[in-house]
## 1
Amino acid sequence: MIRILCSVALFSAALATSTDARATEDVGEPAVDATSGEAGDESVEVANEPQVVVDDDPWALDLPDWFELDAEYRARTSYINPLELSGTRVRSIDWTEQRLRLGFAVKRGGWLALRTRFDILDGVLFGDNGEFFSDPSPISGISIASRRPNETALSVGLRPGADPLDPEAYEPTLTGADAFQVDHVYADVVLPFGLLRVGRQPANYGANLGGHDGERHNRWGVSNYGDIADRFLFGTKLDEAVRMIRGDGGEVDASLDDGVILATWLDLYNTGDLYQAGDNLRQNGLMLTWARSEADWGGWRWRDFALTGAMVRLANDDFDTGIWAMPFIARARVGPIGFEANVSHIRGATRELSEGMSVLNPRPAASQKLRSLGARAIVDWTVGPTTLTFEFDYASGDDDPRQESDLTSFSYPRDLNVGLLLFERILAFESARRAAVGVENLHNLSAPSFPLTEVSTETRFTNALALFPQVNVEWIDRPEHLFSTRFGVLLAWPAAAGGAVDPVMTSLSEDGERIDDDAVNFHGGDPGSYYGTEFDFQLRWAYRSGFFWTVESAALLPGSSLRDENNDAVPSFMVENRFEFVF
């Protein structure tokens, strides 16, 4: 039910973006990223979203050494039929949206840098949309006379005149959009003893269970969100520090592919009341990485080996919050096989959720224990132009929404996509409807907190166990042209023993000591034991490493966890066309 984001700052990637060495790495993210693995043939993961490699790219921009540019414009048209698996109002839906992303860096030598990232027209729909004298309103009162598009985006909202306590009353609607957003503004300084980074920066580097930086790492779909933190971060190479203390000669090894890297950080999430010192929400972390670019162990040639472990604490005194996250990442490549394993265990306690939930029932608020687990494993086997992939995903779930029970739900980062339709569209829409009902109830009861906003998955993979075999074939691989296809079959089950439970409608319908006899899923039916089977397909053409044309489609065969109270659910289909221009 609750998402606790305790990020792992992969400092090797952070340090790479602060040095001149970045000029030979992927513009989107350094090639030593511990989880994305998108840099050429040495990678663990074959990326879907485009990467721009400056080295050996005859079409790369010729920029001065003191300036960096990372720019991307994309336009995507999506069609889903139906979005509502068991209803009659929300059938087919189609829209076209866009985004311009600009990243700039100004550097002083190789030791000082100022970095920014901006999103312009992010999620803004094509066209002059809305109804006149409403919000949002089109610029022109006559559509055929419109000559300027406005700024609108898709959302989930209440149908005019409908009951706000009925989930079916919420449907796709238009909302005003921010034309300009600031994602990152931070500064780096490389000191004699390490790197100091301060400002609004990525909460995580790359894509893993601790977070997603919003860059181009996904095999399926795109990145939309990106986790961000207001952070003080420091890191250093321990092995080089020890060598310097010993007085050993030679040049400093600045390579991030080999060595032992230590990082620590402080995040300020919420300052609370300015006159109280104990109510601010803060996060502290400590991370250690051991990396080897090449090694000969057990008679095998290992490449891109890295082990990363961290301890992260999220705390404040206002709601007696104290949470520990213990993430671990391992990756390597041995011959034609690449693998990545990521595990994150979260433990702790907080009273913040039960304070909000207590207004819905007579039970008093209490501190709840937090026990959640997430895991992800990817194995790639490359044979010629073909890569066979086996992916395993797990996020623990919570089938008891009562405030005296433990919190056991784990959620992937919003941009860490698993498939194209089930979690990205269907569950995201239905959970947003239920979250809106819950927020309306809490608002009417003047709740001190609004934990039911967390019911909306917002495309996250949560309360699920999934097996996802895939095959990718690069049919044409030339300097100017790359054409590939990818196919995958996603099979998903609820991770919680009680199935896929909607905490809002289950809480509102509770009528006794037991909760399991009141539990319903996000479609109003039995929680069930199987989400369904999804078939994903992708066509991609890359031209001169700067233009990318991608077509993706998915078909979902719903299982028992997606059926309504009448045991009804129909198959769903989607297709998306996407153009991306990357500089």
Note: Residues 4-47, 50-54 have pLDDT under 50 and may be disordered.
## 2
Amino acid sequence: MLALPCTGIIQRMLGARDLPAANPSGLSAETAALVGQLLQRVQDQERQLAERDALLQRKDREIALREAKIEKITFELARLKRWKFGAKSEAMNAEQRRLFQETLAEDEAGLREQLERLRREAAAAAAAAATSDTTTKAPPRRPRRNPFPDHLRRVEHHHEPERTDCLEPGCGRPMTRIGQEVSERLDIVPAEFFVHRHIYGKWVCRCCQMLRQAPSVAEVIEGGIAASGFVAHTLISRFVDHMPYYRQSTINARSGVHTPRSTLASITGQAGAALEPLHEAHRRFILSCAVLHADETPVALLDPGAGKTRRAYVWAYARSWHDKVPGVIYEFCPGRGAQYPLAFLGARDRHGRRWSGTLLTDRYGAYETVVDPRLYPDRLGAACAAHARRNFEELTYDGTSVVGLEAVRRFARIYGVEAQLKELSDDERRAQRQQIAKPLWEELKHWLQLERRLVADGGPTAKAIDYALGHWAALTRHLEDGAVAIDNNHLERQIKPWAMGRKAWMFVGSELAGQRAAIVMSLVQSARLNGHDPWAYLRDVLQRLPTQRASQIEDLLPHRWQPASDAAP
């Protein structure tokens, strides 16, 4: 009896096609039977290997899908924790807060159960345990007090010892002053109300019986009690400090001044109407820039007929972050459809031209219509790099996403280059971006494409990568135009006052009230961008507006405004 050779050796030496037939000529029956058995064994071995490969591939797909589910649930738990501890109790009533906490508890329990089940399945499949990196936090910095502004009035208090002779035994000589130590403390005098008394002398000619009197001083609110300073104070308290009328009325009453809420509301309404021509001139100034930022934020609008609030939106547009003359404008609209930015950007100027240029947005769908090349070939769309980066930052909150951490690191290198180019001209900035930043963007794109092949569909990592690659042309638009900013953070900072206002007023009373707020806040926020004190700007503008010629209204815009004492004669 011949010894059977190892199947592995036979497979390496002879393929299945090289083995002889079951009963070849020239072989004995015993040898032929042995060869037939070996051939059958090799075929069975090949079939088992094929089945095992198919099983391994199926297991690999199951493991990849399970890991994607675990990543997604971990991400949702981290986001749920941020919502739980970031929720502001003052923004909810007791019933809303109770329902919110109950819903969070239910969601957290459900997600944790899914996560534990997936981990048990992974352990049963002998999945490797993931190791988490531990990072050490930098020691907290010691607080450092900023010096008080130089323009504040200083009241000096001098302190010297009662005796300036040496008290040491046997000395008694006069001491010499060698210096001083200065400490400063901030104090305040409450706001002072005062009254302007306008006394108009009456002059008469006894002979001709002719009466003469100086014309009355023009005021922005004719026949009212409020001078321009008080009107400006009311507007600033309402739209900058976000103080409701009832609180303003209470504060004024502490000084013995009776200003009912109806009076304050009337002052605001009339002042808002007076500022409309200036707001229109400001809109033309904003649209004169070839690169604009655009964004929108929701506000609650009271719907009296329904007895509840509905969602409205404030659309914001700002001149480019790199433009030498800053400005921002807001538009209150009842919805979020594309018709609102289309109408704003489609308005024609005095020369019959509509806006054309580059619009930097967060890629909300409504803006795609605004920059559709088939309808507006003279417009381009740019995307916010911070928005794309934020998707990867959310992956890093639990510290386990290698892709998220690496993406954030690569974005940090790109932003490091951009920070060095802020003070350059547009042409110089474009040249430096092409030389330094463009290779970094190309490396990032190549890396994202490679990582995408390794990431299962449906998870947050895949979504973050797909968003960046899907908007790549718009994300890198700034590389071709030095006037385009890398992100939309500039405008997001200008929208923050509306977010603060939402917490104070809770809702806007009417569409007219929303439009009025947009008018005032457009001018005030632009004044801030140009380094002006909001109250000083509004007070002077309201004082000069009644007598300002329509042809010179642009002299009162925030970027051109000078106080009356500094203005050219």
Note: The chain has 17 helices and seven strands.
## 3
Amino acid sequence: MHIRRSIKDEWRQPAKQPICATGQPQNNPFAQQGNPFVAAMEAMQTLAPGGMAQMPFQLPQFPGLGAVMPGFPGMPSMPPMNGMAAMPTPEAGWWWLPAVKPDAMQAAATKWFSPKLRNQYLRTAAFWRELVASADLEERERHRAKFFLEQMLDAAAPSNFFLTNPEAIEKALETKGESLKHGLENLKHDIDQGHIAMTDETVFKVGENLATTPGQVVFRNDLIELLHYTPTQKTVHQRPLLIVPPCINKFYILDLKPENSFVAHAVAQGFDVYLVSWRNIPEELKTLTWDDYLEQGVLTAIDEVRDHAKVETINTLGFCVGGTILASCLAVLAARGELEDFVESATYLTTLLDFKEPGDIKAYLGESTYKLRVQSLGEDGTKGLMSGAELAQSFASLRANDLIWNYVVNNYLKGQDPPAFDLLYWNGDSTNLPGPMYLYYLRNFYLDNKLIVPDEMEMLGEPIDLAAVDIPTYIYCSREDHIVPWGSAFASAESWSGDVEFVLGASGHIAGVVNPPGPKKRSYWTGKWPAASPEAWDAKAKETPGSWWPHWYDWLAKHSGKKVTAKKHVKSKLGAAPGQYVLEKM
């Protein structure tokens, strides 16, 4: 079971020498700062774009709790409760205390914090968790309540405030205030940029040290560019591969740098690789629909690859929401009776088709949040764009300690500059989505889960039935994925009627996918398909150390035809990879 990292790393370390003579603060610092959650949320909203006011931090009403989920009015001085004396002492495995016994942690913190303050924070957190656990709520609402509660507890953590963060205080003293000065400079920079800097953004440049695999742009319309990568082998497989990345981020997560580039490794294996680069939607394209993403996006790309490579059928691969779009397109082709004439196989990487259990993001899903979005985008979505910055903030909040508060503490309280990290640079390079497409996706997939119901939906005038897609299919999912839980990927895989190869990898949504051959840091599991349940499949699955990529190469080669002499690449009038669209900023 995955256990969350502690947000009190300093409480787990041997105590340092106290700053003040007594070694302990005389007063509760929270009492001097008002409600810490409100202060934290106000700071967060200054860093976010205008749409932050409609983020889920505007907490919903939970009838079973009798009030809006907690504003922490009693955090500094919560009155004694009758049942509190019987509340269990936090033990190993309790939320962010996975491995430290309370008495050991208290001993480490005594010289730095008032034990009363420390215990009050832990007991208050325990009280609210117990309240949510015992509240009369439906399971989905309980999950939402627990999620928003943990958001508040994360925000209210003493380490997030200067007066109760001993490392920040010590650093300020050691640097004679320079760390505070630089922290304020970092804060101003992030306010100007509209987001919290997670990496040194000056180090990276797409096309120079990111997305550098050689290739040409062979097609462009208002929505996509189609990239064709230059073969590195004398011979290539006759049947090309079309990669459809997610449209809510830039494609270069699959082409970060040569050593971990999914694209470059596939090219090196002798596959003829094409890739869709989605447009970062500008204001003039805000009325694009889901059907437009199918027709002008993937279906057009399939036609262009077939024409450019001079072949009848191609292999396809979809990643995350790119896989959902691809699956919809293949269902359209099946309904038209054209699927087997155009597409040989499909690969899906961490893709949801059955949205019954959509992972941690379900805390943000509900009629209330949908209505908020309709208010801003209009009933048909044509009034505006879904901001990529808001989407990025929503996903970051799913791991708030790692992707928000960690940087608040280090960048602002301690005045440190974030290190250069290519993955985090990509993570912050989001794309806008058109309002109609976004609302359609939210309503029909996440809220109503229509995609898996035969003939429940129409796309491009065709009834959608995933079971009609009977081509060979490779499914990859990640064991610790919090966006596409592997059990949901398993349920999604049951939609297909063709031969299915189901593979489970270690790690999460991104790290599990971007796992190149080399040092065997992670494993993957294979097993017989179909199986009665995810648990039944897992119980009999075979574990193999190392990357799952070679396993996929072997599978894909069987569907890629014979090897032929690689064609000489001609310089395109549309320019070289990575193209123009990936360079467009919000």
Note: The chain has two domains: 9-176, 215-359+454-578.
## 4
Amino acid sequence: MSPVQPAPQQSAPQAEATPSPAPQSGVQPDVQPGASQPEERFTLHHSYIWLGSVQILIPVLIAIMVSLGGSFISVIAEGIPTGEDAEMALALGITAVVIILVMAFIIVGRIIGYKFTWYTFSPREFNFYKGIIFKSRTHIPYQRVQSIDQKATFIQRLIGVCSVTIETAGGSSNKATVIPFVDKSAAEYIRREIFVRKQLMEQGYTPEQARDYLAWQTYQQQVAEYNQWQLSQGGVPIQPVPMPASVLSPSASDRSSDATYGTTPGVASGVNPGTTPGVIPGVAPDAIPTTGNVLDAPANFANDMRGIFGGAEINTGQVTYSYGLTNSQLFLSALCGKSSTLMAIFTVIITAVSFLGTLADFNFLTEDDIIAAAVSAVHSELLPALVIPMIVSALGFVLIVWVILLIGTCIQYAGFNARRRGSRVEVEYGLFSHTFKGIDIDRIQSVEITQTLFQRLIGYCTLAYGRLGSVTSDSSTSDDAALSAMIVHPFIKKSKVDEIIQGLTPEFADYAHPDTRVAPVARRRALIREGIVQGFGFWALVVLTIALIQIGLLALDLSNPAHVDYLVAQALYMGALGYLYALALIIMIVEFIGALLWYKSAAFGLDYKYLTITSGHYTTRTVSMMRNKIQYGGTKTNPLQRRAKTVTLMARSAAGTGGSTERLIDIRQADAERWMDWIQPGGNKVCADATTPEVAPTVEVAASLTPAPEATPAPAPEAAPAPAPEAAASTDTEMR
């Protein structure tokens, strides 16, 4: 089938076809960027009706079958009672009618809802309409969009549709807009349209100029496809239309105050003809590192298939940096994942409970029977014969569950790919179900490096970017796709972190490294705090010791046979307490070791625009935040800290659904003063010597970009007092 000649003023995709505009014939192509064009409605994919109905019908039918299951089972087991055939037939008929009516109601509701659900692209914002009786219209300004994610279940992936989640910077009650049942081409078009418009407007273009530029770019693509077909058929190609003068460069008068995010380093401030906005020059496509694993081939095959109704792929921009997971990284990510570890612990607990339930099945009724059975178990070695098979069974069951979890996690991370595309970072993964996450660079709140104990031993870590979490507009609970951190590498060597950050986000490549340790007294305070005051093992030992003392204080007559039997049971009871005592002692030792590990890793660092905090026990977490992303900062002390001359550092960012506060306990007072000087408003302040925190000098940077006349600065008074707690509190309030 031959392509048709492009039509004029075609700036938006056809709603029912592929998201790229379909060329039309018979009209000489023309572009009038300044012409007023009506907003085109884009409806959802028709799977919204039939697949959505099936998703609703399945739980409804299950609920009906469960409610009527007992009656059907009794009829099958006992038969229909004599004389009740008519009543039973009537009940079955009514049930069938109810099921049919429910199905019809759901299907009709989805059909009507489909007619009242659509989205549009206006010059300034994305609009989403839905609702039959209670109508809603969601306005999403392009410049407020922080990320656009996609998620598809296994069935949706086969069909070629997904759910698109648009997240905005909305604060603590941030709401995400979910557009369900969008085919893959439409999802890619939504992502390209919103992000390109957003970047153009931040660079100073008016909304109308951004719209006209996209219309011209789409028209150029149509002309290229049409000319390619004409040349293959021996025809005469048509001449492309040059970019209109109104969108060649942004006007200074058109720049809005919303464009204060600044131009990303390496991104051109204007858009030249023949280029795609948001492309970072300097990295050739053949220089992109390539990594992969055995599951990438089937995952890439599934991506290329795009499903039954996926449509043609839409170019969303040039990729300048990309990487995947090697076989070892994929396996270690699954092996050390939180889900597998927690599931293994849960399995051990369930197995222990089952073992106790098995012992309870002996149905000992009297105290004499319990004592006799306990004594017999000890002397006849019956107890080891019961315990050893249970332990072996538990370990085997844990191993089987762990292997299943390993396979599931590997399938989940199959096809993992993280990349830099224009001014945003994208991550996608999944073999059966597919997840895509994309976030604009200016919406990244922090860089987070997490190390579990096993990762610390072998020198690996997990790299993530802090982001604003959100909840869906139809739910009050957080979704997995809207967590506060977007993992860009689940298992990477610690020495390779800077390389990954440089490739994905060169804007964060010069983040501060934590080089200022906590106060020496923090070690003693951590041992007391973690091992005693907040320690579970210590207080468990106290309770068990009290129980042993109470047993030892019982006065029993050894010449009395009844008391002797009781002493045997008492000895067994004390043996059980001994095991618990040993377990509590182990827990206390683990908590003390955790306190020492915290002291060894706890540190922070400051430079001209970054704050980095490292803290944690067996799992350490390093968070680096830009100064302009910190909502407020402050310090906090209690009487014991003031006596030890230490301070708690606090810095809050917008990451997460309600923001997140990073804390570092027991830093020196001089370091706290340096932190408050760095964070206080009224001009940028830079730490002059980060390696000598005791001196804590600061150098103030001039707020104006115009060089000041050379002059000798007035020296600060030598007797300037250190900031008092009241001053710190007022600074904290100002930062809010």
Note: The mean pLDDT is 73.
